[in-house]
Amino acid sequence: MAGRLLSSLLPAACVLFEGSHAFTFSASELVTSLRPSRRASLRGSPSRSVVLYMTDKNEYVPTGLEKEVDFKVIKERLANKQLPPARTLSQTIDAFTNAFGPEIPIIEPFQAVIQEILAGAHFAVSDARFEYDLIFGTGFYGAFVKAMTGYPYGDEEIARIWQSMAKAVSLDPQKVIKDHNTAIEWIGGKPEKDILLAWEAASAGKASAGSMEETAVMIKTNPCWQYSRLWGAGLYLLMEKAGVDPDQKSITKWMNALDANYKIGGPRKCFMDYTQWKAAIARLEDAMKLFKEAEIRKKKELAARLEAQARELEKKEREIAASS
């Protein structure tokens, strides 16, 4: 079973790793809403530049001051970091199947999405720069919940799948759920302005442990911070909870508040992933409609067969009664 799961997962995982994937089943989709950028350098600030993007409405949208990734600092910071033993994707898949059990009755369209979320989590946590935070936890569990909506085998099996998935990437499944809930509750009914001001004002020593302010401090003070698609998914979910439509401008604002406006793995990448996230969610919803329609047809066919059998049995009983 693990072998079959691996063989079906690797093509999607390769697409994911190459950077043209965000919970999508095709690498052929391109972001059509953005055209080539126009860059304006800032004098006296070689590590940052202003980038303007032209949208399909023929208007330039500034993405703000882009931060360069300082690979020298990253190398120095990671030199003394205690890292867990490296794990391959196949080992993560084995860990998932061993935790769940030898038989995995996960059906399409759920299996493909579960596989891709697992691959996304694997590649994120396997990066030496990875630091877990509430936004990543929100994306990991939130994406899983969206993917499993309508799963026919019940909440107990959904919980088993989640437990197995989180443990496969060495994360505490209950903690991730708690962090997801903490982040969603913190957003609550806050207006966007208050959320961004709270992140901008967050500072070390004032943020309580396990809070969204602490997550903001972690990101702002970490020169090795690494963007991942599941982190991006967490940001989209928080923005949607706040009633904000994730677009290039709003994503840039939110990531600026976290001082995460990187040229590589910054708002531009996050927005590109969002366009594919939306398309994937729409495809999943369409697949679910087809799945439900097929289930309804099966039930109707079964009911028709049972009704025909009942009529045949009734006919035979009448014949027996008439002949006796």
TrEMBL record:
Parts forming coiled coils: 289-323
Pfam family for this entry, one: ThylakoidFormat
Signal peptide residue numbers: 1-22
Gene Ontology biological-process annotations: photosystem II assembly
Keywords recorded for this protein, A-Z: Coiled coil, Signal
Cited InterPro entries: Thf1
Keyword Coiled coil carried by entry: yes
Keyword Manganese on entry: no
PANTHER family per record: PROTEIN THYLAKOID FORMATION 1, CHLOROPLASTIC
Name of the protein this chain belongs to: Uncharacterized protein
Organism of origin: Chromera velia CCMP2878
